[in-house]
Design a protein that fits this description.
The chain is built from no helices and 11 strands. It is mainly beta. The chain starts with a strand and ends with a strand.
């Protein structure tokens, strides 16, 4: 079992930045890919970004490419999502997830991931 805990969410004005963290405990997830998803009120989970076990392969949703950066520090068993130039449409609950594989094969699909955090709220005001 892997337990994932997100932190770093909050309220920020449009154009601002936040850095989310995803701390893993239990079984190490250093050999697994990981991803960030978000969910706005009344909407489905939306893929944001994914990273392979060693950071060698990264995918972004088109809506965040160039503004968000996913990274990980395996020595700390922690993943990160740096979010810059935030927009009101970025508002939602952000979840990190651990992939079943070292590199997510279809990073936007929920079935790729077998462990999820509880989420952290990000609210961007206009």
């Amino acid at each position: 079992q892997v337990q994932l805990v997100e932190s770093g969410g909050g309220l920020v004005q449009a154009g601002g930045s936040l850095r989310l963290s995803c701390a893993a405990s239990g079984r190490t997830f250093t050999s697994n890919g990981m991803a960030w998803f978000r969910q706005a009120p009344g909407k489905e989970h939306e893929f944001v970004a994914a990273i392979s076990w060693n950071g060698g392969h990264i995918d972004y949703a088109a809506s965040v490419k160039g503004r968000f950066t996913i990274s990980r520090d395996n020595a700390k068993n922690t993943g990160y999502l740096q979010m810059n130039s935030l927009k009101p449409e970025d508002t939602g609950v952000y979840y990190c997830a651990a992939s079943r594989w070292s590199t997510p094969e279809n990073p936007g699909f929920l079935y790729e991931y077998n462990f999820w955090g509880q989420g952290t709220q990000v609210t961007v005001s206009s």
